[in-house]
């Protein structure tokens, strides 16, 4: 009996599950313990067609919808959320170019994502986190090109990225740039706040831009519209972040269920105690509800209707459910739940980290509140 039937295309999901079981699960604990970027896994995923599943075929992608993308993130993150967050920075970069990039950028970079291009999305600065309306990193025109100067902080996937999306302030406002690694003046270092307790996919880096020169076409979209572009792509990353949280929740649930199904206490299996059954009943219902919301959000991405509402709600709900399920999984497994060689600590750390990363619960509630005020204003 299948506890977690596919929400879309059962054959496709079965293929992703098999890949994750073979290629990712055996390395999950090691990735977490050593805090390393899973480069080889991401390259293998590209060969399997997963890194560009939602890109159009003409851009080198699989041409599938965001339901398929959500399934990839869910199944991959069931094995390792660190791989999931590594993949999400790739999707963030390709999405902003797909939606806002000029034809030159699209021709140059979109096909490379399907070939395994590793990327990072560099918004954060030491003095600017959720509020990116003004930035310390500056971009000025130099003839037909641009020169970027500044420093980005706490950049996820930055330790292995071959390509960056960088937000910088121009004279007319914040703008977005496509920046390949290896340019003169572009360097990175590991700062004092580089490691996190969850979603450990390599140390976060500080990215230094010392008069980095870019061609004119490296500007993504219209100058001064960077904040709008970033917000416009958040719905995609938040939906897929919700799928990552579902993967974490399912993994914690399954591992705990397997333990209590075998563990005996007072002459019976632990799962036979009614109180324990109630815990699992509640967890199952919560995961199912959050999972359906994530796939509803994926439908909204494909249709373009109510994206803010469903993406924000999906990440808010899924992240909370994952944290609650992971914590309860520790509890029902007792001493085994807190052992270093058990996976529950990783599940709990990853789940909690995603209540902050990619849009905190408070920011998501603000977004949903603004959506409701718009509904009232339109009624």
From TrEMBL:
Gene3D superfamilies: Acyl-CoA dehydrogenase/oxidase, N-terminal domain, Butyryl-CoA Dehydrogenase, subunit A, domain 2, Butyryl-CoA Dehydrogenase, subunit A, domain 3. Residues 224-370 form the Acyl-CoA dehydrogenase/oxidase C-terminal domain. It holds the Pfam family Acyl-CoA_dh_N. Its cofactor is FAD. InterPro entries: Acyl-CoA_Oxase/DH_mid-dom, Acyl-CoA_Oxase/DH_mid-dom_sf, AcylCo_DH-like_C, AcylCo_DH/oxidase_C, AcylCoA_DH/ox_N, AcylCoA_DH/ox_N_sf, AcylCoA_DH/oxidase_NM_dom_sf. Residues 14-115 form the Acyl-CoA dehydrogenase/oxidase N-terminal domain. Keywords: FAD, Flavoprotein, Oxidoreductase. The keyword Flavoprotein applies. The keyword Flavoprotein applies. It comes from the Bacteria. Residues 121-212 form the Acyl-CoA oxidase/dehydrogenase middle domain. One of its GO terms (molecular function) is flavin adenine dinucleotide binding. This is Acyl-CoA dehydrogenase. Belongs to the acyl-CoA dehydrogenase family.
């Amino acid at each position: 009996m299948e506890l977690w039937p596919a929400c879309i295309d059962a054959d496709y999901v079965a293929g992703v599950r098999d890949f994750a079981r073979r290629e990712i699960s055996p390395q999950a604990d090691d990735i977490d313990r050593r805090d390393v970027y899973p480069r080889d896994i991401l390259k293998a995923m590209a060969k399997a067609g997963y890194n560009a599943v939602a890109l159009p075929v003409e851009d080198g992608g699989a041409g599938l919808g965001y339901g398929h993308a959500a399934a990839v993130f869910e199944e991959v993150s069931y094995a390792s959320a660190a791989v999931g967050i590594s993949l999400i920075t790739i999707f963030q970069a390709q999405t902003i170019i797909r939606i806002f990039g000029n034809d030159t950028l699209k021709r140059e970079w979109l096909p490379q994502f399907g070939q395994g291009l590793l990327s990072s999305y560099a918004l954060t600065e030491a003095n600017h986190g959720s509020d990116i309306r003004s930035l310390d990193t500056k971009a000025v025109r130099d003839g037909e090109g641009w020169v970027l100067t500044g420093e980005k902080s706490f950049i996820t996937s930055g330790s292995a990225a071959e390509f960056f999306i960088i937000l910088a302030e121009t004279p007319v406002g914040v703008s977005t740039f496509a920046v390949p690694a290896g340019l003169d003046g572009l360097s990175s270092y590991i700062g004092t706040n580089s490691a996190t307790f969850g979603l450990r996919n390599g140390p976060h880096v500080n990215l230094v831009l010392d008069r980095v020169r870019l061609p004119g076409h490296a500007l993504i979209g219209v100058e001064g519209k960077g904040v709008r572009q970033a917000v416009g792509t958040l719905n995609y990353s938040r939906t897929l972040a919700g799928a990552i949280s579902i993967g974490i929740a399912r993994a914690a649930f399954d591992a705990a269920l397997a333990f209590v199904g075998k563990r005996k206490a007072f002459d019976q299996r632990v799962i036979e105690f009614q109180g324990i059954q109630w815990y699992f009943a509640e967890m199952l219902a919560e995961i199912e509800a959050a999972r359906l919301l994530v796939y509803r959000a994926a439908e909204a991405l494909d249709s373009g209707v109510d994206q803010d509402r469903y993406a924000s709600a999906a990440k808010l709900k899924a992240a909370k459910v994952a944290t609650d399920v992971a914590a309860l999984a520790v509890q029902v497994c007792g001493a085994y739940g807190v052992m270093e060689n058990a996976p529950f600590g990783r599940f709990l750390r990853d789940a909690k980290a995603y209540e902050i990363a990619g849009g905190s619960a408070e920011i998501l509630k603000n977004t949903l509140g603004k959506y409701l005020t718009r509904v009232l204003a339109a009624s």
